[in-house]
Amino acid sequence: MSTPVAMQPVAEPATGRTGPRPAQRLTGFMPLIALVALVAALTIADPDFLTARSLTAVARTAAPLIVLAAGATLVVLCGGIDLSIAALASLTTVLLALWLPHLGGLATPAVIGVAAAIGAVQGVAHVLLRIPSFIVTLGGMSILSAVALVVSGAGTVRVVDDSPVAWLDLYLAGYVPMSAAMALLVVALIALVLKVTPLQSWISATGYSESAARLAGTPVDLVKIGAFCVSGACAGFAAVMLVSRQFSGGPTMADNLLLPAVAAIVVGGTAITGGHGSLWRSLAGAFVVTLLRVGLPIVGVPSAYEQILYGVIIVVAVALTLDWSKVSIIK
Amino acid sequence: MSVPAEREPTTSAPVPALEVRGLVKHYPGVKALDGVDLVVHQHEVLGLAGENGAGKSTLLKALVGLVTPDAGEIYVRGGAVKLRSVVDAADHGIGMVFQEQSLVPNLTAAENILLGGEGPAVRRGVYRWDVMRRLAQEQLDKIGSKIDPLARTDSLSFADRQMVEIAKVLRIEQRSQHPPVIILDEPTSVLESKEIETLFAQIRRLREFASVVFVSHRLDEVLDVCDRVTVLRSGQSVGEVATAGAVPRELHRMMIGSTGSDDHYHENAATPVAAEQPRLSVRGLSGKSFQDIDLDVAAGEIVAIVGVHGSGREDVCRALFGIEPTTAGEIRMDGKKLSLPNTRAACAAGIGYVPAERKIEGMVGPMSVAENMTLTKQKARCAGPFVAPKKQAGLVDRWIERLSIRTPGRDTPIQRLSGGNQQKVVLARWLVGGDIRLLLLDHPTRGLDIGARSEVYRLMRELAASGVATVLLGDSLEEAIGMADRILVMNDGRVVTEVACPNGGKPSPLDLVKEMV
């Protein structure tokens, strides 16, 4: 029927559930606390861990993950999810490896453009056909993986002359991996654009309450398509980083990055229900995930257990960050 | 709050099947129930009447354990009970047939009736269809229904589905071993008139072995089928009427109350409307739930649309904002034809919409006052493509002051504000651009206390004086009459009459009710 109405004057403001829940407030610091704790634990386990060399290695490993997670964070902030990022990145490594000999320096922008377009197409499918993003990108993941297999002939495509992408595998000042610097730049750039334009408002409103955003005349559909497009472009850029490091492209090269990327987003504290979160959180989350990945062998856990860890991390982190008021039918 | 009163010694009268005393329920900023008293005698059909927002829904939810009251007592057959869930309520013999039907469409009637309480119909995890059929048949026999228990629910008519629901609810008899109390929430809203007759026969039959609480917005129905009616207003029980000899008009008077108009609506601030070319002109607008709507609103004019639930007035409002699709007709703004495929087009045309569900559709709770206020008219806070923080701060602070919005600051999440201040921010959203021409207000004072209401009314007057055209769907008839210059009455998707409503010549609510029902 209707919302209840009172005609009695009610004491000011005295609104009940307000602001972030305690758990959400905690998650604001969670990624940073986890980061510090992990570095401390790993240093205790292996005093050699806290050296420039190993930190450089961590940063270099984290770079593609950061970029992947950053793009997908936009989709999550809008209230959706992009499961196709890893498959799209794999396909892009193949395309880049195939196109480098022909296009040279233009191959990089070309594959990023293609990846962005593929992301946008998924966004359009999600918005226009009104299919949940989860389903669209799950289907997309399967299709893109298959295309990668077909295009690559189901094998690794070697890059003979990697000079157009080799710059990404250099080091700044001898220690800072160029890929990590570029990843930071991507995060900073997107975060800045959001901050100084109405996009931040539009994305948050769409994620928190799509119906309210729509009724306020916010371009909800365009915002969502845009988020998928940027997510695709980021997957493309992550692929370029992988190729520059491995001198090849492969149809499953980035596939094992899907779970870590989702883990990075939720560990960062971005709510999977949308609205609440930021790219900086995903950056911190990506480092947490990378440290765990690097750290497991240090503390003597076989890397076969890695996937178990991701599974646990995702479930626990979502349990802590989920906006229950949105998914529960009980008010 | 109110302490449960001492129970009066029960004299010769039999113990009531269900009794509610001083029930109170607060929601943030709102008192939904403010000391409701209610008695349901055994073998009685009690009607519950009240306007939208009078507290009917909350009361019913409290009776079936979906809402925990803040104070007050519920007695079942004389004993105080605490109802924490639907199962709790069922254990005490209280069951509800919900407004939105709660059957699983692709199961059989028998499965639905026994759902959640299969008992002997399931052995070792396997359905025993013969037992199930027999048990379901027993339930259907109780209400004399001829429905085949093995028919798929989605193959049944709405009326038959309702019978299945009633048969399902009646299973609580077995839990409590007492005559049950059956609550029917707006059961007639989906039925044809013939089916309604069948339902009423059924309700009279239920009275033989149960008590019934019947809720409907159709007062004639309430008077027809009930023995007694309790009227709710503003979360309080304001009266009780024996239905024999009563007329709808009498009930309605109790529902809307008769508060003196102490210029609550700022009627003297109403500005005379120049009858030139109308700002909004709608001709022959038709959609799914409304047909052939003509509507003119002049600049500075407030036009209220009144009608009962289901009259289609909300959909007309939404159609004017590009949400509800239309099939025919045209909309003109200042003479120019408008096409409104979506809300963005409406916003661009200078139309603003304040939705009824403020918390869900009107505002984005966790976002700041400033962000909520500038969500639509981004240009007002931007320099080129970029947000200009200083410009935004100045703009937002100006409107906070101008509308006296009480907030700790512009960066406070809007959900921390009281309802009235939230609503002012939602209204301000349409004003900051300075290009508002038509405001569509769907229950703009819903959930607001009296002071906040008055402020919203004052604001509406100011906007009208500045030349904004307003379409108002009032929260109550009184509000519509108090605020409007003109009132359109809608019934069953059509405008049935138009009533002039000038200051000093206001129609009475009863004149309008005649046309509404």
Automatic annotation (TrEMBL), chain A:
Membrane disposition: Multi-pass membrane protein
Region described as Disordered: 1-23
Cell compartments where the protein resides: Cell membrane
Highest taxon of source: Bacteria
Keywords: Cell inner membrane, Cell membrane, Membrane, Transmembrane, Transmembrane helix, Transport
GO CC field: plasma membrane
InterPro entries: ABC_transp_permease
Transmembrane segments: 26-45, 57-76, 106-129, 136-160, 172-194, 222-245, 257-275, 282-301, 307-325
CDD domains with a match to the protein in the record: TM_PBP1_transp_AraH_like
GO molecular function: transmembrane transporter activity
UniProt keyword Cell inner membrane present: yes
Descriptive protein name: Sugar ABC transporter permease
Gene it is expressed from: rbsC_1
UniProtKB/TrEMBL annotation, chain B:
InterPro entries: AAA+_ATPase, ABC_carbohydrate_import_ATPase, ABC_transporter-like_ATP-bd, ABC_transporter-like_CS, P-loop_NTPase
Domain ABC transporter stretches: 18-259, 275-517
UniProt keyword annotations, A-Z: ATP-binding, Nucleotide-binding, Repeat, Transport
Keyword Transmembrane: no
Gene3D superfamilies, per the entry: P-loop containing nucleotide triphosphate hydrolases
Domain of life the protein comes from: Bacteria
GO MF term set: ATP binding; ATP hydrolysis activity
A Pfam entry, by short name: ABC_tran
PANTHER family linked: CARBOHYDRATE TRANSPORT ATP-BINDING PROTEIN MG119-RELATED (PTHR43790), GALACTOFURANOSE TRANSPORTER ATP-BINDING PROTEIN YTFR (PTHR43790:SF9)
Official protein name in the record: ABC transporter ATP-binding protein
